[in-house]
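User: I'm curious whether this sequence folds into something compact or stays loose and floppy. Could you predict its structure so I can see for myself?
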Amino acid sequence: MISFEEAETEETVTCLHMTFYHPCQDSKMVFRCLNFHKREQVRADEMAKFGRDSNICRYNLMDTRVSRIQFSLQFYRKLNSSELCFEIKNMSKKTKLTVDQTELGYLNKIDLPCKCIICFGDYQILAEIQEGESMDYFETHLHLAEVPILQERRLPSLQPVPENSISSALFPSQGKSPIEIDENES
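Assistant: Here's the prediction. I'll summarize afterward.
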């Protein structure tokens, strides 16, 4: 038996927590092939693919409106850094993918922020990265949301704002008069 002092140092593992929402989940069971509430290991050199094709994608969405490969996540280490990150790439020719407020067309990719919302069609996915040290693999931990993520997080809607008005959600103080204060007053 190896003594405590001689045992290898435990590495923490980067974990990507993903919370999924679709308005028709109860009736269509679009997430029935996802393994919720259990961490899964993914090798660092594998690309995590999400889509309809079970022969190609590790994470299957059971919906004919989803592309064979909807999007992929690549785990990587930044150049000249120990920082481990994810890159998200839209693999759908028909559906744009939105990461927070950045719209990705086919084959566009960006770094996945530490906490963001991924949207396509009626799908909403909250992605949160829990940092780790291991470069051999990462983990995914999937969750199911009962209510829309955009609604639950009270984020501004991604609805367009008419040109002749300003969204009051962006400026909560709209309609209030400014208060003038003398610089000598404390």
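Summary: Residues 13-148 form a domain with the Tumour Suppressor Smad4 fold (CATH 2.60.200.20). The first strand starts at residue 15 and ends at 21.
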